[in-house]
């Protein structure tokens, strides 16, 4: 079920649960049904790969623990995922990786002498190591290091399926067992080296996979480490240090030079340069003055500033980014399902081939000659390269993206991005700089323009919408003191309403049905809009106070981006909530011929659905302020820009910088990654198709097979890592 997300601003409860105990899609569906039935639940989305449930509550009648209880009643575990958890799990993953790494070196230490002995044996035909030493070396590798393969094989077999672990456990056990038998019969030509090599090498493959996964979340853990721990709050003029966890919305904090901002907020005094490098990949620090949005964990490179906190804890941009990358770890790209499917049927076929080989040799050349080729087939056919082909490429691709401020929620979005044929753009903040300026103030008779501006600014204070920022700036520039409005509430894509000095005020779209204005107001609105300006009406108790017109500038890089997208025959559509004049003037300058003006957030999503039903694969690029439904509806939702209330959970890809060229980079990165995956799959399959016959015909002995298979895994990982060099030439 598609989650239709609504604005976080409306205090709608959205949260994620870590689900444990799911083993198949049936489990995920059962959980969705059970939770979906609970009243107060808007939507529930269970992702089997990342083992996460995304839940949106209509209101706050229902508490998380009620949902957790419902899930555990049907036999699954559930717990709320917090930023701390992600940090913890990341630390656990790091520790687990380190202990595996130590174990790998130990396994290599035991395996090397066996390999050396094998080479000496080939040369001088006598083994330097006494047999019991080979046995003593191979046994711990087989049963201690190999335990993970036995465990994997056991779970696969009791679920009546087979996987790579079955192959590894079987081939190494046969080689080991066979060597023990030979040893008992007094032979010296044993195969302890091949059983040890198989285990050690495949273990290496799994380690490389873990390493790649950790690398992609390196960028995020760098962020997490950078996060401030204490905040300098100002209470009644006194500065007091408190832990960041105790911050609440509305707190006033001072951010000193070379300190990270403790959380998301808005500058109320002072101006400085903030280094957003880790968030946006932007190397240059960005100027931030009163009214500007500050993102937590970005570093103050200039004078101290006073910031009012607008978001804390899980709501901050940083927390949302950590959730995103965390979700990326678990997701599976469709092409990976293909690889899993192949290795799924692959294993039974190989088992059959190995038995066939054994039978063939037993008949033609007797039992002793039958073991080797049969074991060789098992060893060489291990599809670990197949298992690595996709995840390593996706991990490296995601890591490259993360370093450029392009956060990909999961492999499937990199893949789907390559299939896009239509791109829907939002206007303000996406194609236009989103730094709007109030160009005209038109108060009605009896109202002064300063009253008009002050009233509007009071309602728009603390809002992150470009229109709100522009009105707030204008009030600041004119040195007005901004009054306190209360019960302010955003109506996504329409405007903002609230109460100022006891009067109900609305600031927003003039053509909302509820109110009809007198002809001379309509005329004035048309006059401004004809100039391509965005107009907002200010009403008090339903009666118009006046009009504010705002202008916006098109981003300089938008021209080349649109040009390049149409060059790769991408259909470009502009969908905006703004009036048709403003939309037309932007579209005409950017040569976009399809424009849908005055589209409400839900209308945007509907337009995307219509495009999809007519057979198009659609990407939506929005600034996320009220594009969440459209971002969720699109095949790939791309949130552009670092506005802190960007609805990351609605987006599949979040581009932290506001440059539209990053969209081109994301497209190119997805092309590169998919090409890399196809290459890897090709090599993995080729090596198997060549290796299996050679092994079956007795040309290869188990050691050579083990080494060859190791080579194939390492080839795939190295090939994936080469993505780093290849991506260096991505659109600058
Ligand atoms: N905070 C606000 N203050 C005043 N008016 C607003 C506000 N938010 C939205 N509006 C009104 O609603 C219209 C559409 O809102 P918004 O710009 O968020 O929609 P959109 O679809 O994102 O448009 P765009 O394509 O320009 O980004 C605006 O042109 C404006 O008239
Ligand atoms: Cu199940
Ligand atoms: Mg917008």
TrEMBL record:
It is a multi-pass membrane protein. InterPro entries: ATPase_P-typ_cyto_dom_N (IPR023299), ATPase_P-typ_P_site (IPR018303), ATPase_P-typ_TM_dom_sf (IPR023298), ATPase_P-typ_transduc_dom_A_sf (IPR008250), ATPase_P-type_domA (IPR059000), HAD-like_sf (IPR036412), HAD_sf (IPR023214), Heavy-metal-associated_CS (IPR017969). Residues 13-79 form the HMA domain. Keywords: ATP-binding, Cell membrane, Copper, Copper transport, Ion transport, Membrane, Metal-binding, Nucleotide-binding, Phosphoprotein, Translocase, Transmembrane, Transmembrane helix, Transport. PANTHER family: ATP7, ISOFORM B (PTHR43520), P-TYPE CU(+) TRANSPORTER (PTHR43520:SF8). Belongs to the cation transport ATPase (P-type) (TC 3.A.3) family. Type IB subfamily. This is P-type Cu(+) transporter.
């Amino acid at each position: 079920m598609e989650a239709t997300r609504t604005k976080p601003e409306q205090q709608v409860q959205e949260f994620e649960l870590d689900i444990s105990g799911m083993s198949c899609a049936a489990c995920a569906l059962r959980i969705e049904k059970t939770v979906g039935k609970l009243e107060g639940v808007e939507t529930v989305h269970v992702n089997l790969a990342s083992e996460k449930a995304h839940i949106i509550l209509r209101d706050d009648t229902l508490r998380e623990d009620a949902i957790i209880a419902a899930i555990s009643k049907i036999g699954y575990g559930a717990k709320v995922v917090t930023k701390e958890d992600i940090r913890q799990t990341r630390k656990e993953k790091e520790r687990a990786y380190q202990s595996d790494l130590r174990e790998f070196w130990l396994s290599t230490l035991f395996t090397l002498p066996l390999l050396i002995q094998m080479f000496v044996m080939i040369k001088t035909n006598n083994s330097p190591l006494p047999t019991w030493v080979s046995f003593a070396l191979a046994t711990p590798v087989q049963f201690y290091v190999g335990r993970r393969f036995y465990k994997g094989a056991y779970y696969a077999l009791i679920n009546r399926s087979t996987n790579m672990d079955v192959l590894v456990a079987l081939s190494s056990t046969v080689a080991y067992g066979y060597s023990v038998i030979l040893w008992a019969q007094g032979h010296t030509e044993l195969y302890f080296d091949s059983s040890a090599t198989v285990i050690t090498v495949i273990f290496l493959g799994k380690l490389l996979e873990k390493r790649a996964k950790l690398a992609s979340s390196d960028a995020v853990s760098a962020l997490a480490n950078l996060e401030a721990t204490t905040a300098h709050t100002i209470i009644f003029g006194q500065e007091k240090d408190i832990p960041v966890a105790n911050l609440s919305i509305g707190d006033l904090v001072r951010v000193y030079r070379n300190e990270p901002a403790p959380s998301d907020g808005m500058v109320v005094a002072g101006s400085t340069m903030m280094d957003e490098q880790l968030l946006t990949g932007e190397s240059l620090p960005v100027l931030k003055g009163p009214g500007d949005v500050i993102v937590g964990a970005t570093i103050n490179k200039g004078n101290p500033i006073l910031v009012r906190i607008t978001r804390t804890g899980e709501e901050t941009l940083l927390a949302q980014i950590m959730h995103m990358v965390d979700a990326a770890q678990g997701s599976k790209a469709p092409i990976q399902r293909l690889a899993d499917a192949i290795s799924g049927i692959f294993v039974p076929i190989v088992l059959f081939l190995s038995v066939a080989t054994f039978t063939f040799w037993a008949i033609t050349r007797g039992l002793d000659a039958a073991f080797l080729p049969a074991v060789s087939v098992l060893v060489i056919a291990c599809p670990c390269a197949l298992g690595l082909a996709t995840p390593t490429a996706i991990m490296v691709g995601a890591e490259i993206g993360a370093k450029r401020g392009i956060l990909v929620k999961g492999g499937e979005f990199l893949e789907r991005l390559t299939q896009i044929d239509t791109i829907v753009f939002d206007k303000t903040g996406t194609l236009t700089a989103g730094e709007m300026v109030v160009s005209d103030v038109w108060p009605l008779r009896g109202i002064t323009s300063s009253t008009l501006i002050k009233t509007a600014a009071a309602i728009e204070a603390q809002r992150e919408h470009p229109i709100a920022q522009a009105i707030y700036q204008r009030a600041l520039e004119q040195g007005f003191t901004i009054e306190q409005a209360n019960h302010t509430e955003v109506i996504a894509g329409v405007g903002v309403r609230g109460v100022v000095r006891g009067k109900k005020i609305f600031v927003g779209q003039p053509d909302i049905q509820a109110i009809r204005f007198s002809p001379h107001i309509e005329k004035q609105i048309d006059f401004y809009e004809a100039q391509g300006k965005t107009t907002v009406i200010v009403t008090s108790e339903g009666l118009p106070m006046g009009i504010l017109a705002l202008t916006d500038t098109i981003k300089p890089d938008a021209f080349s981006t649109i040009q390049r997208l149409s060059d790769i025959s991408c259909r470009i559509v502009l969908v905006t909530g703004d009036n048709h004049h403003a939309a037309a003037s932007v579209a005409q300058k950017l040569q976009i011929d399809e424009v849908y003006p005055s589209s409400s957030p839900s209308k945007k999503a509907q337009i995307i659905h219509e495009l999809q039903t007519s057979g198009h694969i659609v990407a939506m690029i929005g600034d996320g302020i009220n594009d969440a439904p459209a971002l969720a509806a699109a095949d790939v939702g791309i949130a552009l820009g670092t506005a802190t209330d960007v609805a990351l959970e609605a987006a599949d890809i979040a581009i932290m910088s506001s440059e539209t060229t990053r969209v081109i980079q994301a497209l190119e990165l997805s092309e590169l990654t998919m090409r890399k995956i196809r290459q890897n799959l090709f090599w993995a399959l080729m090596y198997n198709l060549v290796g299996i016959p050679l092994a079956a015909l007795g040309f290869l002995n188990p050691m050579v097979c083990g080494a060859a298979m190791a080579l194939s895994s390492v080839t795939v990982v190295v090939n994936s890592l080469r993505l780093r060099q290849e991506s260096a030439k991505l659109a600058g």
